[in-house]
Amino acid sequence: MYRPLSSPSTFRTPQPRQGGATAALLAASLILAGCSGGEDADASEPEPTFSSAPSSSAQETGDASRFDTDDIAELLRAEPGPLDPEDDAEEIIDRLTETFGEDIGEADPDEVFLELLNLAAADYREVQQYIDDVEVEFTDPGSGPDDAGVEDTGESVESGQSGGLDLHVLFDSSGSMGDELDGERKIDTAVSAVQDFIGDAAGSDNVQVGLLSYGDVSGDNCGSTEELYPLDAYDETRFNEALESQKPGDATPIATALEDVLDDVNAEHGDVTDRQTVVYVVSDGKETCHGDPVAAAKALADSDAEAVVNIIGFDVSDDEQQSLKDIAESGNGEYHRADSGDELRDLMREERSRTIDAWRTWQSENVDRLREEQSTVVDKSREIQSSGVDTSRAEQTALIAIVDELQERSEDGVSLGTGLRSSAVSRGTSIRSYLVSTLTSLRSDAVSEGTSLRSDVVSEGTGERSRIISEGSGQ
């Protein structure tokens, strides 16, 4: 997002800069028809007052050459004059007369105008400082809820990680998963439900999926796991084939499986902590290999990846429920219970609904925030433009009043007065045109970028919800 205007006291003091001739100002004017709001009104109309530096006859002027440039931005960065043309008109005229002599009417109007600005130019530094500093920036909405994944899985993870989601599925292939439940082997029911869930949760581009089986490896089941799908982008065919390849084994080495994931996470992340890690353990019973899954889950949660460990307990006996809940709690995750095939499928449907709701919320919140950030830039730039334009009008009117008085007091002052008035109008017109053009362009950029980002968010959110609903209805 953009940097807001600071208070005047925090601005740097611009240094005098050299430039071209004051007479070139008129040629540099940008006359904007229709959008300038009548800024080039007749100079005789009442204008708002403006403030220059505090009035004091003891104050010294700077180098008048700081106004000898056709670069409008440099003019607005210049130190103002020390005198107020409304309150100090007599002193300004006296000092001009002292500088150019009683025959000031014969002096070069350009030189007189530079000295007039040296004495009484308005202060535009705050306006130009805003233009120099403002940046049209919007908060990155990311790629989805909590940047593509945490809300998709229904879990709560601390913010601060925004590089995507690594989703690890640990699948129980112990012997009990071969038992029948509701006329179907539990392993087959679980495979089908996990396929549906992962197909939804891994739909975003920055989600990676890994599949680890524990309990079905021949031989020493308590010491073995099998990586069926190394952490990678989701490929539906390859993932489903890996999931369907499992066969019921003997033991339930949950701790070993979690430790294997921790090894992978440490190798994958290293010092990188901008990806979120969520682990789903699908199990129909407690640890049976004398490991410590609670400690393993806590180690994952305490790792640089700050992983979340969730447990899906499928047809778990009452006396084993608590052990699985303890694992989820130590892993900063949640325990989900499903006592039948229908309940497991319902659980996965609930996850799908939570995903849809998360995308809807993500879309709404980002659209609102982007609109607010756009309005902030637009409103502030209008405020700055109005302030600068009003100051310019007031300055032009005050300078012309000085010129009129100077002309009346000078012999042969008509030519001088005509030249000075022309320079005052040229300066005012150029400044106002510059402000309107520059700040209108800024607002246009903010509106264009904000509109584009909101359109992208709506398209992304609507598309993801449609995809999830479509996949769910086809199952």
Please tell me about this protein's structure.
This protein is α/β, with parallel strands linked by helices. The chain has helices at 25-28, 72-77, 89-100, 109-120, 125-133, 146-149, 186-201, 236-244, 254-269, 293-302, 318-330, 341-409, 413-473; strands at residues 165-172, 180-181, 184-185, 207-214, 225-233, 276-283, 308-314, 335-338. It folds into 2 domains: 8-138 and 375-470, no CATH class; 155-333, von Willebrand factor, type A domain (Rossmann fold, 3-Layer(aba) Sandwich). The chain is built from 13 helices and 8 strands. The strands form 2 sheets. The protein has a 6-stranded mixed beta sheet, sandwiched between helices. It has a two-stranded antiparallel ribbon with strand order 2-3.
Number of domains: 2
Q: How much beta, percentage-wise? A: 5-15%
The secondary structure category is: alpha/beta
User: Which outline best applies?
Assistant: rod-shaped
Low-pLDDT runs: 1-50, 54-58, 147-162
Mean pLDDT: 79
Radius of gyration from the CA trace?
Answer: 37 Å
Counting DSSP E segments of at least 2 residues, the number of strands comes to 8
> Helical content, roughly?
40-55%
How do the SSEs run, as a string of H and E?
HHHHHHEEEHEEHHEHEHEHH
Distance between the termini: 43 Å
Strand order of the largest sheet: 5-4-1-6-7-8
Question: Biggest sheet, in brief?
Answer: 6 strands, mixed
Q: So how many helices?
A: 13
Protein name: VWA domain-containing protein
Region (Disordered): 1-20, 36-70, 139-165, 449-475
Domain VWFA: 166-351
Pfam families: VWA
Keywords:
single chain; about 475 residues; alpha/beta; Rossmann fold; six-stranded mixed sheet; two-stranded antiparallel ribbon; disordered N terminus; VWA domain-containing protein
